[in-house]
């Protein structure tokens, strides 16, 4: 089932389609909605290229990150397709929508899009108002117990099904690339190392053959065995057996009420609804004054999260003052305050510009400028610096309407750079994402998939911990082709790096992202590339036109990599 999406912002040279495949998963045995028997993805292709995927020069299938849906990648996707076409190569960019999105209720977003009013969605999701006789039901972990089966094996098997749908002939798999962003990047390693039929002697089904072109992890690392247990013989067997006991206990809990992060205090789904409502408001009425403070209730499902990540000082955690909702801001500013690296105390950041009003620095969690103290600051705060701590601001008062300067309207870069304690708080080298495009991507109306997935199954995260640590029993025994790791180096003088051995790999890291700290463990590939000035989201959301006058670098790297013949 295929649906063409008429997105006018794509231009007439890129076509986006929404594709659904009916595929009941063999790994889902519990009762679940019929909608969960489908998997889906967004397909981007050049309108000048072939319509059949088998005739494309290359295909990149991409997994989004934690709590991310397929729309999370719809800023980067057309850029990759367009840049490849400029070189005479026709590629497809596939953004996967993980199966757990079947649990979402998109009724309010569709109605708000049709009405042109985000408040319709706010009434539906937060105030109990019905739409066509249907009301929003807050789903508890018990309601979503079936997601406790949605782990690594199911996710990778869905990925395999998409690959074989696009390229049914195994001879074509050499032009299939497997990539991802954030959590999706860390899924690349297990995908490459997975033995789908459980028989090592047959390798046609192995992940490294299905993804025959190579891996493309973005602001994440493709790892298969970071500790290097695979080369330790009986030690590996013992750890796997012992870890499997813990794995089975965790899986029991996940299928009996702990499948998703829907807690009485801090509900992931409701936090995502707040984020997407901000995105829809910014897309529909960018200059209008935000009324999120009145349309979103400050209850326990969202309030602790907001206080933890958006307070100006430690007192705000107690009082709840000085949160984004407490200021007079435009809808664009309200969205940017939730994600811009000069506001949010959270790894999910992008450089989208800066406030267009007087500001004051935050003292939570550390005062502005403290991390810039010579020697001591960079040493003590090397990780927080790369999350955004130490250069964050809020509007100076609650009464002045505060606008937002887009990424290309901030101060030019200078030899001194931003002065975290005194001078300009940012510059054009560190602002790379167009906030208008970001709002469009986050707007859940008018597109069949979301920027965020409301219900990331915790089983996927726990399976990753066991698979890459110890506890590869049951479904995880398919992680067969492990290589590298610390012990492999110490015991056998093998590869310390735990990237899939023998496979082409483009690891791109944001220059100001905390993910790069994996380098301290020696886990980054030797040829990993850093994109200066980028934050965690920027690697997939950066604007096609950059302040430097150069082409956007991440999509340029990706397009060049997947169109370059293997040596």
What would you say this structure looks like, in words?
The chain is of the alpha/beta class and 567 residues long. It has helices spanning 76-86, 107-115, 118-126, 152-166, 183-193, 207-210, 234-254, 268-284, 292-295, 303-310, 314-319, 331-339, 376-380, 382-385, 435-442, 458-468, 486-492, 538-541, 553-563, and strands at 2-5, 14-22, 38-46, 58-63, 91-97, 176-181, 214-218, 353-356, 359-361, 393-395, 403-406, 508-510, 529-531. The chain has a seven-stranded mixed beta sheet with strand order 1-2-3-5-4-6-7, sandwiched between helices. It has a two-stranded antiparallel sheet with strand order 8-11. Strands 9-10 form a two-stranded antiparallel ribbon. α7 (234-254) packs antiparallel against α16. The chain starts with a strand and ends with a helix.
Shape: globular
**Spatial strand order of the main sheet:** 1-2-3-5-4-6-7
Radius of gyration of CA atoms, rounded to a whole number? 23 Å
**Spans of at least 5 consecutive residues with low confidence:** none
Largest sheet descriptor:
7 strands, mixed
Fraction of residues in helices? 25-40%
Mean pLDDT: 91
> How many beta strands in the DSSP annotation?
13
Provide the structure class.
alpha/beta
CA-CA gap between termini: 37 Å
Helix count, DSSP H or I runs of 4 or more residues: 19
Strand content: 5-15%
